[in-house]
Structure formats: C-alpha cells, structure tokens
Amino acid sequence: MSSTGSDGEEARGLIGIWTWHLGTNLVIACDRVCEHIDVPPEQGLHGIKLERFIAAIHSADRAALVASTRAAMDGRDTFAADYRIRSALHGICWVRSIGRCFRNAEGRLSHISGYLTHMDEPPSPPPEKSREEVEADLVDHLVHARDLAGDLGHDMLRRLIEATLLEAAHAIAGRLKRSETE
C-alpha cells in the first residue's frame, strides 16, 4: 500500500470518518481520525467519550464548532465547520468537518455522522479600519457613484448623491471639530 492510502484518500484530503452516538455520548472514529486526535485506533473503533474528541480541537475554535453542531441538532440536520486540531504526529492542522444528523422513527436525534478533510489555513481577516479610513472610503464611494450617475445621464440621481456627499462631509467635519476640542 502506498503512503497515500489504498485508494488515494490522502491525495484528496480525506482524513476519515466519525460517528457520535448521542445516547452513549461516544464517538467512534476510523484509524486516521484517531491518529489526528492522538487516540489509539482500537479505542476509537470502540468509542471514546465526546470530551476526549473535543480535547484535540483548538480551544479558540470550539465555540464555533459547538454553535454549528447545535444548529444542525436543532433542525438544520447538516453542518460544516472549519477548525484546528492538535496531534502529536501531525502538529496543529486545519480540518473541515462535514456532518449530518440522524433521527429515529420518533424524530429524536440518535447520532451524528461525518467526515474530516484537510484544508488550507483560512486567510486572516483584514485588519479593522479606523473610523477615518471608513469615512474616506465612504466619501470615495459617494464620489464614484455621483460620477457614474452623471455619466449615465441620471441628473436627478447625481444631485441626490451630491446632497448625500455634502451631508457626509458636514458630519465628518463636525466630528473632526468635536475631537479637536476634546
């Protein structure tokens, strides 16, 4: 067998599958998922406590995962969540978990099954802009909108945008004046 697995699952990013049985609060996971959460495969195949599974998830990512899972449990039935897991063998890596809720004949949730895949680290959100930067963007957009309205021959719209631009400039000037006196 090659290092990519018998059918190339590593090449596609698939790590493996898991099932959480709500009645027993046990998670059953395949060998590769166990490898990524530092659980011996024989334990994972027989079930580990949910808390042990969650312990491998980066603490900063747990709340979002819980919220996504809760939404699925409350009726959406499917979920997808991106988070980091810690492993002695693999270090910290980003994964995507895709899962589905299953219900018994009475409609009560019985278990959630899903799979894990590797993913690239998501891009960092852009740094928050200062109030001055946001105001400058607003003025730039209003000027652009005014020019577009004029280019298209919408004279009334151009005048309305000019009035809005004038009001925005007045509000910004008032804020600047107040901040100088404080």
Describe this structure in words.
The chain has 182 residues and is α+β, with helices and mostly antiparallel strands. It folds into 2 domains: 14-118, 2-Layer Sandwich (Beta-Lactamase); 131-181. The protein has helices at 31-36, 41-46, 50-55, 62-76, 131-151, 155-181; strands at 14-21, 26-29, 48-49, 78-87, 91-103, 109-118. A 6-stranded antiparallel β-sheet has the order 3-2-1-6-5-4. The longest helix is centred in the C-terminal third of the chain and has 27 residues, at 155-181.
Task: Supply database-style keywords.
26% strand, six-stranded antiparallel beta sheet, alpha+beta, Beta-Lactamase, elongated, 2 domains
Quick gist of this model?
With 182 residues, the protein is of the alpha+beta class. 45% of the residues lie in helices and 26% in strands.
Tell me the domain tally: 2
Radius of gyration: 26 Å
Count every beta strand, where a strand is a DSSP E run of 2 or more residues: 6
CATH architecture classification of the largest domain: 2-Layer Sandwich
Strand count, sense and barrel status of the largest sheet are:
6 strands, antiparallel
What shape does the CA trace take?
Answer: elongated
Strands ordered across the widest β-sheet: 3-2-1-6-5-4
- The ordered string of helix (H) and strand (E) elements is EEHHEHHEEEHH
Derived structural class: alpha+beta
Q: Beta-strand percentage?
A: 25-35%
| CATH topology value of the largest domain | Beta-Lactamase
CATH class placement of the largest domain: Alpha Beta
User: CATH superfamily name of the largest domain?
Assistant: PAS domain
**Chain-averaged pLDDT:** 86
Helix coverage percent of residues?
Answer: 40-55%
N-to-C CA distance:
72 Å
Q: Specify the number of helices.
A: 6
Low-confidence runs (pLDDT<50, min 5 residues)? Answer: 1-11
